[in-house]
Fold this sequence. Notes:
α6 (112-124) packs across α8 (141-149). The chain is 54% helix and 12% strand. The protein is elongated. Strands 4-6-5 form a 3-stranded antiparallel beta sheet. The chain has a two-stranded antiparallel sheet with strand order 1-2. The protein is an alpha+beta fold. The chain is built from 11 helices and 7 strands. It comes from Tomitella cavernea. Keywords: Cell cycle, Cell division, Chromosome partition, Cytoplasm. This is SMC-Scp complex subunit ScpB. Residues 1-23 are annotated as: Disordered.
Amino acid sequence: MTTSGGAGADDAGAGMEQEAAPPADERVDAIIESLLLVADAPVPVAVCAEVIGIPEARAQARLTALSRRYDDSGSGMDLRFTGEGWRLFTRTEYAPYVERLLLDGTRATLTRAALETLAVIAYRQPVTRTRVAAVRGVNADGVMRTLVARGLITEAGPDPETRGTLYATTGLFLERLGLDSLEDLPPLAPLLPDEDVIEYIGDNLDDDPRVMKMYARSSAAAENTTETDVDDH
């Protein structure tokens, strides 16, 4: 009995010591993959480290190694750091197949109108719908509703001067473009007039009778003319 009891105690003690030991790299990588697969937002290194019970430096090292392994093996998964944390993506070259599965054989992409509207908001944010319409020369209400629904832009409070709703891009917008911040947007300076000219145009745009007339006309025709937000093929 003594021998049996002693063996059981030894086995229990060995099991506790094994559980307390730091997990091997392969196990850490597997845990990280599990966490990233169920996460609906980028996962910070600190969160990975806390959940797994390892130092942040080791979590960072394993995330980097896992990302490199995916790249070297040509995996369909792409592990990237987005500025807020690490997240799994499908690799770009396999996007057509992912679209085919999710869209049931059709492709849905932003139209040129939606891309133009998104660009205006990205570079002029926060900006009102009136200002976006004035820059583009057409009513953009329908397109902007679609961009809001897709999570690419969001309301950013009222304009102090006009009380109109301001719009700005979201974190999803940066994530889809693979950017860490708006500062990473490519400069428009080579394509634009001098800064003082831009500021003058911007400050006087809403009061220009031609712009006011254009917006009133486009708003009145909005019921009959609506820009589509996707191209279906």
